[in-house]
Q: What sequence folds into this?
């Protein structure tokens, strides 16, 4: 598993749980970090709400899928300066972190399932 992911000016370091934009750390909760890391690890692909919730909350994720919307909203606000990437909602499918210069993932895009890591 890759410990360091870079998307544009956004850096995600799994070994230290630090996320930075242009080298400036941003404050994320543990859950926000896990959600972001899951999306970044699967960038340009749609990740189901269930898979994201499982990565963030583990086996008890079924009770947290509704909370996911709130956490995604908070992440978007905290990442508003990360360019050119953003978290996109793919209706009835899940979420994707994508390069805004590229078209949004299509509904027939392969969805990622629950991944361990």
A:
């Amino acid at each position: 598993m890759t410990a360091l992911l870079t998307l544009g000016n956004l850096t995600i370091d799994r070994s230290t749980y630090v996320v930075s934009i242009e080298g400036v750390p941003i404050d994320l909760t543990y859950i926000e970090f896990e959600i972001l890391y899951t999306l970044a690890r699967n960038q340009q692909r749609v990740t189901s709400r269930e898979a994201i919730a499982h990565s963030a909350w583990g086996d008890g994720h079924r009770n947290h899928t509704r909370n996911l919307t709130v956490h995604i909203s908070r992440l978007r606000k905290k990442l508003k300066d990360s360019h050119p990437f953003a978290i996109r909602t793919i209706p009835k499918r899940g979420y994707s972190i994508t390069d805004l210069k590229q078209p949004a993932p299509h509904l027939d895009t392969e969805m990622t399932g629950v991944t361990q890591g």
Remarks:
- The chain has one domain: 4-110.
- The chain has a mean pLDDT of 83.
- The helical segments are 30-41, 49-57, 65-78.
